[in-house]
User: Which sequence fits this backbone?
C-alpha cells in the first residue's frame, strides 16, 4: 500500500516522502531558511525595457530584478496598441518603464540569473488551474486520455467560466461531477478577486499571494485513491493537513493520521538511507553496477558503470540487465533530486537493436509516473540517450547544498607541487617589475615548505637578479589552492625591513566562511492569506430534478458575481457591458447562455418525442 509520510519535527526542514511498501519513489524537501518564490504573486514595476532581448526587467522586491519576456506580458499592460499579430510587436512600442504590473514567479533565481516572470497568472486548485487573464489557454491535462478526456470535455463546457479567463482540468478532476468542478472554480475566482483588490491598494514590491507550503501542496497534488494513508509526526502539521482535507476533500479525512511512535517516522519505513542516496554522486545498483550523476552548467551527465555486475551469460546480456536496472534508478533519482533541464545518459554499449529499444521502453515506463513533463529521445550510435525534464522547482542540490569553498565547485584542486611552481612564477613576475622592493607570497603551510626547501635556490636567484626581497610566509589558515601575492614598491618599504614572521597576515573573516546561508530570512507577509470557501458538494449521486435545478441556480449567481469581478478589474469591459445592456437588453455572455439553454431544451424535447414515437410504433 502506498503511503505519504510527512516529517515536520525539525523547524529548519520539512520533508514529504511517498513510499510504496518500503521503497521511496518521490521526495519533496522544503528548506525553511530559504524562501521559495515560485508561483508566488507580486506587484512589481518595470525598471528597464531591453529591445535587444525583447524583454523587460521588473523590480518585485528580490535581490535581482526579474526577467519578463514580451510573450509573457499581457496586453492589458500595453500603453498603446501594437501590431496586428504578436510576431510584429516590438517591446519598446508597447511597454514603457515605470509601468506597474502583477507578476507571478515562473522560475526561481538560478546562479547569476534573476527569476523568470510572467503576467499570465495561474492559480492551482484541487481539480483545476485557473488562468484569470489568459483566455486562449485552457483545456484538459495531457495525461488524461480516452473516455475520461471526453467526459471532462463535456464537463468543462458546462462550467460557468467568466469571459477572458481560461481553465485547465487536472488529473485529480477525473470522475468529478460538474458541481464539484464548479465549486473549485468558484473558490479560485474568489481568490483571484481578493488578489485583484489587494493589488489595487498595494505598492510595488509587495507580496500579494504566496504559494501554499509543502504540506498543503503535497496533499493537494499527491493525495489520490491509491494513497491509503497519510502519516504526520507533528501535531501542528497534522492539524494543518486535516483542516485542509476537511475543507477541500473530506472523503479522505480518515486517511490523515498522526504518527506518535517513539521510533522516528522515516526510520520506521526504512527510507532514511534511500534519501541519503539523493545527496550522493554515485548510486549503487542491485546487480553490483552503479550510476554516476554529475550536474553541470549546460546539462546533467549520467554515466552507467557495470562495475561488479555479473548477471548474465555473456557481455551483451550483462549490459542489457545493468542498463535496465539503471533506467529504473535514473528515473527515481531524477524525481528524488528534482533535477530539470537537459539530461544525457551514457548507457553501456549494446550491439542488438532490440536491446536498445527495450532500454528506451523501460526508461519511458519508469518516467510515466513523473509529475514533470518529460521528453525522451532514442539511444544514438554512441550509446547516448538525450532527454529533458521540466524544472518544477529548484533541485535538491540547489536548496540544500552550497558551492565548495575550497574548489569553488570545480571538484578538483591543484596538487602542492603544481601550485608551488605557479606561485614561484608569479613571485618572479612581480619582482622584475620596475621599482619592486619586496614581494610577499602568503601561502598554505605545505606550499611554503616546498618553496623554502625544494626551491630555495630558485628564490635566491630571483633575489639576485631583481635586487628585490622575496618573502614566503606560511599561513596556517589557508588551504590549497588559495594564496596571495603582494608587491611593495620602494617608496612603500621602510629602511629597515620588517621581520617576516611579524608581517601582518590577513585571516579570513569568520562571518564570510560561516553558514550564512542557513540564517532564516525575514518572510514577507502576503496581502491575501487565504479564502474561506464553503464545503464542497458531496460526490454522491442526486435525483435528476435536483441535478437540473442546481446548475441553473449556480449559473445565475456565478455569472453576476463574475461580472462584478470583471468590472472591478477591467473597467473598459465593465462600461461596455453596461452600455450593451442599456442598448440591446442582454450581454453576449447572457445571449450565449440563453442559446445554450435553448439548445439543451430542444435536445431534450427531441429525445422525448423520439422515445414516444418508438413506443407508439411498438
Assistant:
Amino acid at each position: 500500500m502506498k503511503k505519504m509520510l510527512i516529517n515536520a519535527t525539525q523547524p529548519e526542514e520539512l520533508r514529504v516522502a511517498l513510499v510504496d511498501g518500503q521503497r521511496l519513489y518521490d521526495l519533496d524537501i522544503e528548506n525553511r531558511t530559504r524562501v521559495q518564490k515560485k508561483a508566488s504573486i507580486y506587484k512589481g514595476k518595470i525598471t528597464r525595457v531591453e529591445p535587444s532581448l525583447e524583454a523587460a526587467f521588473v523590480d518585485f522586491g528580490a535581490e535581482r530584478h526579474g526577467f519578463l519576456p514580451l510573450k509573457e506580458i499581457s496586453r492589458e499592460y500595453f500603453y498603446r496598441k501594437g501590431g496586428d499579430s504578436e510576431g510584429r510587436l516590438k517591446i519598446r512600442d508597447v511597454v514603457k518603464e515605470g509601468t506597474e504590473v502583477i507578476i507571478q514567479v515562473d522560475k526561481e533565481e538560478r546562479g547569476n540569473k534573476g527569476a523568470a516572470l510572467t503576467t499570465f497568472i495561474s492559480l492551482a486548485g484541487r481539480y483545476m488551474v485557473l488562468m484569470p487573464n489568459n483566455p486562449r489557454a485552457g483545456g484538459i491535462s495531457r495525461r488524461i486520455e480516452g473516455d475520461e478526456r471526453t467526459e471532462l470535455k463535456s464537463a468543462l463546457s458546462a462550467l460557468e467560466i467568466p469571459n477572458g479567463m481560461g481553465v485547465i482540468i487536472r488529473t485529480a478532476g477525473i470522475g468529478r461531477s460538474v458541481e464539484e468542478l464548479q465549486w473549485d472554480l468558484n473558490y479560485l475566482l474568489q481568490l483571484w478577486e481578493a488578489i485583484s483588490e489587494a493589488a489595487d491598494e498595494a505598492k510595488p514590491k509587495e507580496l500579494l499571494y504566496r504559494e501554499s507550503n509543502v504540506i498543503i501542496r503535497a496533499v493537494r497534488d499527491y493525495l489520490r485513491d491509491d494513497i491509503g494513508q497519510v502519516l504526520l509526526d507533528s501535531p501542528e502539521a497534522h492539524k494543518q493537513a486535516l483542516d485542509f482535507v476537511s475543507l477541500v476533500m473530506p472523503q479522505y479525512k480518515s486517511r490523515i493520521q498522526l504518527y506518535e511512535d517513539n521510533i522516528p517516522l522515516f526510520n520506521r519505513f526504512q527510507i532514511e538511507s534511500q534519501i541519503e542516496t539523493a545527496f550522493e554522486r554515485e548510486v549503487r545498483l542491485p546487480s553490483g553496477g552503479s550510476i554516476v550523476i554529475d550536474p553541470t552548467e549546460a546539462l546533467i551527465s549520467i554515466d552507467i558503470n557495470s562495475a561488479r555486475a555479473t548477471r548474465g551469460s555473456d557481455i551483451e546480456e550483462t549490459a542489457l540487465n545493468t542498463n535496465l536496472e539503471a533506467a529504473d534508478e535514473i528515473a527515481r533519482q531524477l524525481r528524488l533530486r528534482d533535477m530539470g533541464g537537459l539530461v544525457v545518459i551514457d548507457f553501456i554499449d549494446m550491439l542488438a537493436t532490440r536491446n536498445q529499444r527495450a532500454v528506451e521502453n523501460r526508461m519511458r515506463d519508469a518516467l510515466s509516473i513523473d509529475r514533470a513533463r518529460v521528453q525522451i529521445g532514442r539511444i544514438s550510435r554512441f550509446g547516448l540517450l538525450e532527454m529533458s525534464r521540466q524544472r518544477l522547482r529548484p533541485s535538491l542540490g540547489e536548496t540544500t547544498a552550497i558551492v565548495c569553498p575550497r574548489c569553488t565547485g570545480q571538484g578538483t584542486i591543484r596538487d602542492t607541487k603544481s601550485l608551488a611552481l605557479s606561485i614561484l612564477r608569479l613571485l618572479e613576475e612581480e619582482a622584475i617589475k620596475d621599482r619592486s622592493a619586496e614581494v610577499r607570497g602568503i601561502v598554505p603551510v605545505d606550499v611554503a615548505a616546498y618553496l623554502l626547501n625544494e626551491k630555495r635556490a630558485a628564490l635566491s636567484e630571483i633575489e639576485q637578479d631583481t635586487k628585490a626581497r622575496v618573502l614566503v610566509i606560511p599561513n596556517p589558515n589557508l588551504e590549497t589552492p588559495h594564496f596571495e601575492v603582494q608587491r611593495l614598491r620602494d617608496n612603500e618599504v621602510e629602511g629597515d625591513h620588517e621581520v617576516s614572521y611579524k608581517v601582518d597576515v590577513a585571516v579570513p573573516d569568520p562571518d564570510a566562511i560561516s553558514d550564512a546561508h542557513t540564517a532564516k530570512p525575514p518572510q514577507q507577509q502576503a496581502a491575501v492569506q487565504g479564502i474561506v470557501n464553503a464545503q464542497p458538494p458531496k460526490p454522491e449521486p442526486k435525483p435528476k430534478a435536483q441535478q437540473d435545478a442546481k446548475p441553473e441556480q449556480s449559473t445565475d449567481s456565478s455569472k453576476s458575481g463574475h461580472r462584478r469581478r470583471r468590472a472591478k478589474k477591467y473597467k473598459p469591459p465593465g462600461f461596455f457591458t453596461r452600455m450593451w445592456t442599456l442598448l440591446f437588453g442582454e450581454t453576449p455572455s447572457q445571449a450565449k447562455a440563453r442559446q445554450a439553454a435553448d439548445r439543451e431544451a430542444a435536445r431534450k424535447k427531441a429525445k422525448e418525442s423520439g422515445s414516444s414515437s418508438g413506443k407508439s410504433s411498438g
About this structure: The chain has five domains: 2-34+212-272, 43-209, 280-400, 416-500, 548-617.
